[in-house]
Amino acid sequence: MSGSCGFEGCTVDETGICALSRDPLVCDNRQKPSGALATDGQSDESSASQRNDRLGAPVLEQPTRASTFPSSRTLGLEDMNALMGRRYVNVVGILGDPESGKTACLASLYLLISHAMLKNWAFADSRSLTAFEDIARGARDWNDGSAPEEMTVHTELADDLRPGFLHLRLVRRSDGRRVDLALPDVPGEWTQALITSGRSDRLDFLRSAEAIWIVLDGRTLADIERRQRLIARVGQLAGRLNALLDGNSPRLILVVTHRDLH
Ligand SMILES: Nc1nc2c(ncn2[C@@H]2O[C@H](COP(=O)(O)OP(=O)(O)O)[C@@H](O)[C@H]2O)c(=O)[nH]1
Ligand SMILES: [Mg+2]
């Protein structure tokens, strides 16, 4: 058997002569060319059914594209990495017990900058305006001139493992310098878990921080019975940070809230 003929010893491919003296075009021993398969009845049926399956389907695949308007809610670590790949971003770490006033600090910063009341700084841009609006909304509803009792809601994250960042670009009025800030709004429970059990996996981003705010509740500091305990906890937190930061030394800033009351 050789070439196009299945009959042992036939040399029709070389000589053009059939070993059984038949017409080579109609001899049963000749192999059908592969293209001939498409012409038999069964293949016709399957290709017709394939064509029917595609009837009404889009002719071209839809190109993937980014949504026209980004969501402007808090930014995840991936969004932050992308932003940091394009420009220098100052990451700020914000730690503090639940209810110490972390979210209120961010709302306060946003309200000051949006009313052009932050000394020497003006608003340039934000990738997370909706997130700022969400946390600042409660502070806008005043009752007959008195401040609302609860200006912010307890911070809860969609994903309890990844921080959500607020982005703010400010411009310094004196020299026009632009500064991008990444401000995380994370639950106070993360700080508690760092102090009590040393859990730091969710706070890894602190290693990239230029500054860390430790937010302290002014009400606790004003209370002589609770003050010492809070001061001792700040010491424990500093020890945990020392281990976590592993040689990096960002600026540590103590931010005391409720100054209006105490
Ligand atoms: N009067 C007053 N209330 C504050 C201040 N800081 C925070 N609060 C209130 O304290 C509560 C807890 O604050 P929040 O920022 O949500 O705490 P977080 O858990 O640390 O984010 C909220 O109801 C705020 O309105 C402050 O400086 N003055
Ligand atoms: Mg909060």
Please tell me about this protein's structure.
Helices cover 33% and strands 16% of the residues. The chain has 262 residues and is of the alpha/beta class. The chain folds into 2 domains: 12-54, no CATH class; 77-256, Rossmann fold. Strands 2-3-4-1-5-6 form a 6-stranded mixed β-sheet, with helices on both faces. β3 (165-172) and β4 form a beta hairpin. It is elongated and about 115 Å long. The N and C termini lie far apart (103 Å). Mean pLDDT is 86; it is low at 35-39.
Q: What is the end-to-end distance? A: 103 Å
Question: Structural class, judged by helices and strands?
Answer: alpha/beta
| Beta-strand percentage range | 15-25%
Contiguous helical run count: 8
State the name of the first-level CATH class of the largest domain: Alpha Beta
Task: Report the count of strand segments.
Answer: 6
- Nearest-integer average pLDDT: 86
Bound molecules: guanosine-5'-diphosphate, magnesium ion
The CATH topology of the largest domain is Rossmann fold
Sum up the overall morphology in one term: elongated
Q: Please state the second-level CATH architecture of the largest domain.
A: 3-Layer(aba) Sandwich
Please tell me the total number of domains: 2
